[in-house]
Design a protein that fits this description.
Layout (H helix, E strand, L loop, with lengths): L1 H11 L5 H4 L5 H6 L2 H9 L24 H7 L8 H19 L24
Helix pairs in contact: 1-6, 4-5
């Protein structure tokens, strides 16, 4: 359900807060879930070049979620040291998701950060 919602957000060219994303999910279950792990789990099984749908989840001001580094690390991407760099990567992944899920699909730009050598997602991609 969360993945489908994020695809719809991407098709609209938008972003969403965690609270908006889980709207309609039982409040007690969404309150106890690890947000970073939940979003990272959505990314498992996609091709290494696909955009991160989880990058569409932002803080109310549009900035990356506090667990953005955890998501990048969990999916096997190189994680930058600075918040500014994380913000640039998050924005780039949003633009990549908007292009990939646009109707009709637009060309998707290359990812700004590499997969970590030896990462499962980095194999063969």
């Amino acid at each position: 359900m969360l993945q489908r919602t994020l695809v719809l957000v991407a098709q609209r060219g938008g972003t969403v807060t965690w609270e908006q994303l889980v709207e309609g999910v039982a409040a007690e279950s969404s309150a106890t879930v690890d947000r970073g792990q939940t979003l990272a789990a959505l990314e498992r099984g996609i091709a290494s070049g696909d955009p991160l749908l989880s990058a569409l989840v932002t803080m109310p001001d549009g900035s990356p979620v506090p667990y953005a580094r955890d998501i990048l690390r969990a999916v096997g991407l190189a994680v930058p040291d600075t918040d500014k760099a994380v913000g640039i990567i998050w924005k780039s992944e949003q633009q990549r998701a908007h292009a990939a899920y646009a109707l009709p699909r637009r060309p998707v730009s290359p990812r700004l950060v590499p997969m970590v050598r030896g990462s499962v997602r980095g194999q063969g991609g």
